[in-house]
Amino acid sequence: MSCVKDIFLWRQSLVLLSDCIHSVGTGLMLSFPAVLNPSILSPKSSEFTVTPDEASWIAASHGFAGVFGFCIIPPLMQIFGRKFAFFCMNILVGVGFLIFYLANSAAALYAARIIQGLALCGVYITAIVLAEYCHPKRRGMFITIKKASVAIGSLMCHALALYWTWRQIALIAIFPHIASFIVTCLWHESPAFLAMKGRYDKCDEAYIYLHGDTPKNRKDLEELITAQQERRQKSKHEKKDRLLVFLKQLLQKDFLRSFTIVSILTMIIDACGRYYMLAYIVEILVEITGDKSVAVYCTVGSDVLTIIALSMSCFIIRSFKRRTILFTAGTLSVLLMFSTSLLTFLKTGYGISILSWLTPVIILLNVFIVNAGVVPVCFTIIGEILPLEHKGIGACTTGIVFTILYALVMKLTPMMMEKTGIVGTFSIYGVCVLVGLVTLYFVLNETKDKTLLEIENEIKGNKKESAIPNNKRLLS
């Protein structure tokens, strides 16, 4: 069946569309400090001004607020469903941009960033939800398209800054979240969520609607429902003390392994420059080139390269194994970060300048490598690796790790650049990525083209059963 006539592709793409529109708004949100900071730090600004320390705290408050967001929205997602989580995230980010537009003091800027920080869990939840809705063979491509949408939002933010004020950009940034909210109303609820809640008839309906009624899909659906029936039956015989159940879940081997993998992947994403490059790339390139206008245009070029890289990564994710992509692209990124440090050290320490344009080109090349391989594959694995029964607590706990690391990166990057310069900043981040890659080499299993249940069984160490026991529920 051609893609044009594949009705199930279009139904899954409806979820992708809502996710992508939300991600455009996320790109605007993550890049907004690059637009806001130069204005509120400038003594010549017609707006109110803040100190450099206050500006870094405003940027970092987004991450610290995310800790609370991860403690609230993922559990609500497990109780009320995936659509409910999307509604919450779009409302929070949209309201945050409205406060930015109306802000007349530093306190209002803090409030806007904190409210948006509550929706920072969307960085994880969008990948997890998309993985539940789409076909295993499309999963990597869909999640990668979603990441490209973040880059489009970032490009819009940096490009609009050439002509518009940060208030005008904040007003425009509200509209993607309104559109995403409307499209989300058209979804069916996730079959995985419905099975987890014991709503098996609705699960049947949603799964067939999304994937079609074929023997293979019927078998996958039966395995999904059977796994959740066994989990629900087991939970009935356990003590109802929620604290004991919670603590027991935290100590389960499959949770600990998936938590470790996701946490390391998160550290790699942060250290390779996914977020601090969005917010501070202008300052980084100004320090290297000494020319603000060149730095601004290089920033726009970086966003264009990011979109190209993420577009190419759709093919890369579909064609190569997850581990191959991660370790190849990750190693190249480490080498490029160390090269940036070395060239800057030679220039600042010994006055040896090897082509004035070489260091900016290496930085832009690293942006390309990171977004073509490291970021897409990390988020793809994050969307796949958490077992269904742990997705609520897993998204919450790993999300807390993510937000703490994100906040630290946003707060410490300007300080590191001030104290250690480009040399120390890129060296430290390069070492972090290298340590993460070495650890994952021993603990990460391959997930390409496997169903979420197959991945879950590997995480738990279970052998795949070839048939469903006869005494289990049969689908009509």
From TrEMBL:
Family annotation (PROSITE patterns): MFS
Segments forming domain Major facilitator superfamily (MFS) profile: 11-448
A GO cellular component entry from the record: membrane
Cellular compartments annotated: Membrane
Membrane topology value: Multi-pass membrane protein
Signal peptide residue numbers: none
Membrane spanning stretches: 14-36, 56-77, 84-103, 109-131, 143-163, 169-187, 258-282, 294-317, 324-345, 357-381, 393-410, 422-444
InterPro entries assigned to the protein according to its UniProt record, in alphabetical order: MFS_dom, MFS_sugar_transport-like, MFS_trans_sf, MFS_Trehalose_Transporter
Keywords: Membrane, Transmembrane, Transmembrane helix
Family matches, as Gene3D superfamilies: MFS general substrate transporter like domains (1.20.1250.20)
GO molecular function terms noted in the UniProt entry: transmembrane transporter activity
Stated name of the protein: Major facilitator superfamily (MFS) profile domain-containing protein
